[in-house]
Amino acid sequence: MLDVVFLSRLQFALTIMFHYLFPPLTIGMGVVLVYLEGMFLWKREPIYETAARFWTSLYAVSFAVGVATGIVMEFQFGTNWAVYSRFVGDVFGSALAAEGIFAFFLESGFLAVLVFGWDRVTPRFHFFATLMVSLGSIFSAIWIIVANSWQQTPAGHHIATVLREGKPWIVDGVMITRAEVVDFWSVVLNPSTVNRLTHTLIGGFILGSFFVMSISAYYLLRARHEDFARRSFSGGLLFATIASIGALISGDLNGRMIAEHQPAKLAAFEQHFNTGPGNLFFVPGGLSLLLRGDRSAEVIGLDRIRPEYRPPVMVSSLSFRLMVVLGVSFIGLTLFASWRRWRGTLFDTRWLLWVFVFAVVGAFAANELGWVAAEVGRQPWIVHPNIVRDASGRPILDADGFLQYRLEEGLLTRNAVSESVGGGEVLGSIVMFGFIYTLLFLMWIYVLDDKIKKGPKPVHMVDHTTTQSILASAAGRTLKEESMSEAKE
Amino acid sequence: MVWFILLGVLLAGYAVLDGFDLGVGILHLLARTDQDRRLFINAIGPIWDGNEVWLITFGGALFAAFPNAYATIFSGFYVAFMALLFALIFRAVSIEFRSKMTSDVWRQAWDIGFFGSSLLASFLFGVAVGNGMIGIPLNERGVFVGTISDLLNPYALLAGLTVVSMFAMHGAIFLALKIPKGEAHDRIRNWIWHTWGIFLVFYVLGSMYTLVAIPRATANFAEHPWAAVIVILNVLAVANIPRSVFLGRMLEAFVSSCGTIIALVFLFGMALWPNLVAASNHPSYALTIYNAASSPRTLWIMLLIAMIGMPFVLTYTIAVYWTFRGRVELREHSY
Questions:
Q1: How far apart are alpha carbons B45 and B96 in whole angstroms?
Q2: Do A93 and B76 touch (CB under 8 A)?
Q3: Distance from CA of residue A335 to its chain's centroid?
Q4: Are strands A170-171 and A174-175 parallel, antiparallel or unpaired?
Q5: Where are the beta strands (DSSP E) in chain B?
Q6: Nearest to A93 among B34, B63, B140 (CB)
Q7: Which DSSP helix (H) or strand (E) runs through A274?
Q8: CA–CA distances in Å: residue B3 to residues B10, B37, B132, B315
């Protein structure tokens, strides 16, 4: 018998991790594009338009893959996690719908202008479209993180008995309950939303800027498009340095928030088994110092969590620590490169440029690992219940010395899968996703490679209206020739 | 009630907009030359992605407003939804990849992919709508208890074919608006006649089947006689298509085709009301707008969100279509 829970989790993990290669990239690159087009409008130097056109073409294909894989995510709550959907739809579904209405339409509508509109709209309108797409991707992040944060630290809702014809609905002796919104703004601004959103957006900024630096460094090493590459690299470096330091600060805030609301998760991250002073990596008392400013302060360990409610320690701590190591090395790398840039020797340090060509892989990995840590650390819950506290906010322990959860609030992952779906069906869909995502990934790499090889095309200052009419008449006459010459490229 | 209507609006929006680009995909293989095929893809190039967002938002709105129905439909139609996802993604890949290489085999392969996935997606929508009409077996808690073969009943298959032919017709009319005048344009005009004929056959068959097999579909019309106006408008819209094509008024034909789709979605909703998912085994197990809905507070919040958001959506959807008005040309950024 195939295990539907395991397979559904596997499928969700695979599809979300594949999907999540793209959103942070486009969030980060979106800011770069807004900057470039803004500079073009302000300074009117063609190099900015050249750069904007080039990065837009890479941005667009990444965006498209992000959208295609995003549909899968939205459908999966219903297809694989029907019980979860029924339980949280009132709260979680609202955030998803808001994402659709506020973010998706904005992004996909204006993306068309971004990609196909260069010769059809004025630079000013194109800039506006870029701004809207970038804003859309940030809105999208906001709503999806609201939804996810509510799963981590639920607030602003109550657990209601579902009524049928005015009476509590009981099937086979089980009263059917679900989460319902009481205070919408408390749902949106639940205890973890702001911290997690900041950290996620910064993660996107780091990835976007490392992506820009990677390709620019490659051009510099190959001595191609050097002026373009130097400017892009410098801009990316400044952005990456600020973002890397920001990630450290927001990471610290996140740590404090998790210690307060999800002690089991933090204990798993730090492999902190026994309640008492907590170590940070191998620094004795480091965790206590970081959280409470005192090396001997008590931090709740896994021994205070009932065994059945402990998250998988290995996966969450490994992914968490790798993310931290990567984050710290980004700070070192960007500070070092900034110093070289200031001294004027950066572009002659070939080994450093090579490091930057590949550092983008680390940035992708750090974003993924952050999510793995956050979501595996949430297990075994799909909706993490709040901890029972006394009036002063201190957790109340039960008779066995364990933390108590408000069990009616929570939902265990293993109880949340669809009842009408069999293991074979899920296995089949995993194989299908494996196939189609491989294809999608190859397409993405192929298109990126193609565009990077061709490189940015210099744009000369011309009046846009004349270009358009020349292009239009040329296109009308020489369709065949054009497609042939394009093929030769 | 309001959300039932809003979902109807989203569904109609999706069917009208993605309908023509799926239709273009269904007709794709009929184009003879490579240049025609590129024109086809570029006719929908800038907008197909935005059109699919209507589906995503429909899904999100269903999740938020009627979580029970969302959970039942999506998990009950598991294989169908997975096939739909496959088709939608494969379609995107085909569009993106096709014109990247010049090899004939390469392009032929992706052309078939584009055609096949468009066809599959349209067909699956029809099947889903058909099953919604005729009902599926549910248990007391509204969980689907049937198997895949329950979903492939004759009525649902007929609905699938109806939607395919309707989208093909809709797509052909759209192409007639977008493809430059010439030999290809004349052929597209011919396709409109053929697809219209095929659609008419399925439309009549489907209507008769519904009247005979699903008595509950007509109950609401007895209570609300004014709905007959929509039926008449629907018939008039269908009839107006060949008339306006004959007169060469393509825009009018396109509007009629949109009208046909909107009217059909309306009739579908009317027949369904107040059910969201009818239970074929036990009518009282059906998921209705009352027992599948979110709390009134959430519905109000969502309504507020929709009222703030939708005017913006409509504004920039129109802005984007306006930007890409006129007939297609192939240029540097084309597929």
A1: 10
A2: no
A3: 24
A4: antiparallel
A5: 275-277, 287-288
A6: B63
A7: none
A8: 10, 40, 17, 21
- φ, ψ of residue B290 to 5 degrees: the values are -85, -45
Structure tokens at A89: 């739809």
Of B64, B100, B144, which has the smallest distance from its Cβ to A94's Cβ? B64
What is the pTM for the complete model shown?
0.83
Residue of B nearest to A440 (CA): B93
- The candidate with the shortest Cα–Cα distance to A17, out of A420, A296, A368, A353, is A368
For residue B188 the two structure tokens come to: 């597209």
User: In DSSP terms, which residues pair with A171 in a beta bridge?
Assistant: A174
The token pair at A72 is: 């899968």
Burial B275-297 (b: 16+ CB within 10 A, else e): bbbbbbeeeebbbbbebbbbbee
Q: ipTM of this model? A: 0.80
Residue from A79, A163, A176, A457 whose CB has the most chain B CBs within 10 Å, to mutate: A79
Residues A102 and B305 sit within 8 Å (Cβ to Cβ): yes
Here the tokens at position A391 are 């009036």
Task: Determine the residue of chain A that is closest to B138 in CA distance.
Answer: A420
C-alpha distances in angstroms, A286 versus A69, A249, A268, A272, B30? 40, 16, 16, 12, 69
B22, B121 Cβ separation under 8 angstroms: yes
Residues A110 and A133: beta-carbon distance below 8 Å = yes
Q: Positive or negative CA dihedral for A350, A352, A355, A360? A: negative
Q: How far apart (Å, rounded) are the C-alpha atoms in residues B276 and A91?
A: 20
Residue pLDDT tens, chain A, 489 long: 578 888 888 889 899 999 999 999 999 998 888 888 888 888 888 888 888 888 888 888 888 888 888 888 888 888 888 888 888 888 888 888 888 888 877 887 788 788 877 777 888 888 888 898 899 889 989 999 998 998 888 887 888 777 776 677 777 767 777 878 778 888 888 888 888 899 999 999 999 999 999 999 998 888 888 888 888 888 888 889 999 998 888 888 888 888 888 888 888 888 887 777 777 766 777 777 777 777 777 778 888 888 888 888 888 889 998 998 999 999 999 998 888 888 888 778 888 888 888 989 988 999 999 999 888 988 888 888 888 888 777 888 888 878 888 877 888 888 888 777 778 888 888 888 899 899 888 888 888 888 888 888 776 544 444 444 444 444 443 333 333 334 333
CA torsion through residues A148, A152, A157, A160, sign: positive
Give SS3 for B137. coil
How close, in Å, is residue A287 to chain B by CA atoms?
40
Residue A380: asked if its preceding bond is cis (omega within 30°), the reply is: yes
Written as six digits, the tokens of B165 are: 């032919």
User: B248: which 2 tokens?
Assistant: 């060469």
Name the DSSP letter for residue A93.
I
- Rounded Cα gap, residues A84 and B56, in angstroms: 19
Token representation of residue B201: 């056959």
